[in-house]
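Possible regression after last week's pipeline update?

I re-ran a chain I had predicted before the update to compare outputs. Posting the input and the new output here so someone can diff against the archived version. Not blocking, just want to make sure nothing changed silently.
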Amino acid sequence: MAQIIPFKGLRYSEAKVGDLSKVMTPPYDIISQTEQEQYYNMHDYNIIRLELGKEEPGDNEYNNKYIRASQYLNSWIEQQVLIKESQPSLYIYQQKFRLSDGTEYTRTGFVGLVRLEEFSKGIILPHENTLSKPKADRLQLMRACGANFSQIFCLYDDPEKGVPELLNQHISANAPDIQVEAIEGITERLWVMSDPVIITEIQESMAQKKLYIADGHHRYETALTYRNEQIEKNPHHTGNEPYNYVMMMMVEMDDPGLLILPTHRIICGIKDIESKEFLRRAGKYFHIEEYDFCGTGRMERSEEIDAVLKKKGLHSFIYYDGGYKSFFVLSLMDPDIMKERLPDHDESYRSLDVCILHTLLIEPILGIGKEQLASQDFVRYTHDISEGVGMVEDGICQMAFFMNPTTVKQVKDVSLAGEKMPQKSTYFYPKLLTGLVLNKMD
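New output (post-update):
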C-alpha cells in the first residue's frame, strides 16, 4: 500500500526573513491576480515568486516565470534564506481555526514523501476529474525547479488511531518549530519529527493503508507525468530516485478538525421562471415545505436557512428566490429515482447531494446542463449562506440553492468505487499554507 519516506525539507530561515507569515501564501489556485501582486509586495522572499510567478513583457522560452522561479529557488538556497533539514524528517502540521459561528477546530496531520502510484493500482485514489490547462502549468514549473512547493492533501483511514496517537505524543512533548498566524486568523504549526524509531512506526502503519486525495489532484497527476518523463530520460532508473515521490499532507479521516464546507449554487442569467412554476415542477420528485422568516435582517434570514438546512440533513435543499418573506425546503421523496436517471453510475455517486440537485432540478427545470456549467455564466458558487442570500436579494442573481456538505465517508466511498465527483463537490477547509516546508528533488 502507501509507501511513506522522510525527507530533508527546505524551510525558511526566520533569521533571514523575519516574520514568517509574510513569506507564505494560500494555495496557488485560489490566488487572484490582485492578491498575487499583494504577495509580491509583501516580502522579497515571498513564496509567490516560486509557486505563482508573474508573467512579464518579453517572456520567452529562455526567460519566463518558470525559469525565474528556478533562479529564485537556487539563489535563496545559496543565500540560506531556505535551509535544508539536517536529518530526514516527517513534519507534523496542525491548523487551529474558527468558523463564523464561533466553533473552534484543530486539524492535525503529517507531511512526508509518498511514492507515486498509478491510480489503477488502487493505492492512491482520486475523487474528482482534472483539467489539462492547470496540469500543463504545474508541469512546466516542476520541470524548471525540480521541487514541490506545496503539499497534496490526502486522507487515510486508521480505525485503531495508531498514527494520530504517535503525532499527538510528539505534540505533547515538544514545542512547535514553526508557529504562524496566517490568513483568516488560522494558527499554523509545524513540528519537525526526526526520531527514526517513530518514523519507522508511522511508515509500517501507513504501509497497510490507502490514500484518498482530498485536494491537489492536478499536482498529483502532474507529478506522475514528471516521473514518467524522468524515467524515460534515465537509462539507470532504479525506482528510488527523488522524482518517484511527491510531498503530501496526510490527515486521518476521523480527525476532529477535518471539515468539508458546503458549496451552494447561485443561479444567474437564465430565462426567467416564476417560483410557483419552478416549485410545481420540482414537486414531481421533492416534498416541498415553505418556511416563513422570523427575523427581518439579512444575517437573521441566513441563520434561519442554515439552521433548517442542518436539521433536514442530506437529500434536502433550500430554494430561495429573494422574496424576503419565506424560503422553501425541497426533500427528495424517493432516492431510487436517481438509479433510473443515472443507471451507469455507482450508488455512492448517485446519492451525492450535488448529483441529485443538478440531475433533478438545475438541469431539467432550469436548462443548465454540462455545457452551460462549463461556461461558468449561469452558476456561481459560495460557501457562505449570507453571501448567497445577498446575491439574490440584491438582484445580482435570480435564485439560490443551499445544500449540506459532502461527507468524508462519501469521498471515501466514491473513490473506492472508481467514480469522480462533479466539480465543486468538496471544499476542504482550511486550505494548506504554502511555504511551511518545501521538497527539492535532489
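Follow-up from reviewer: compared with the archived run. The chain has 16 helices and 21 strands. Marking as no regression found.
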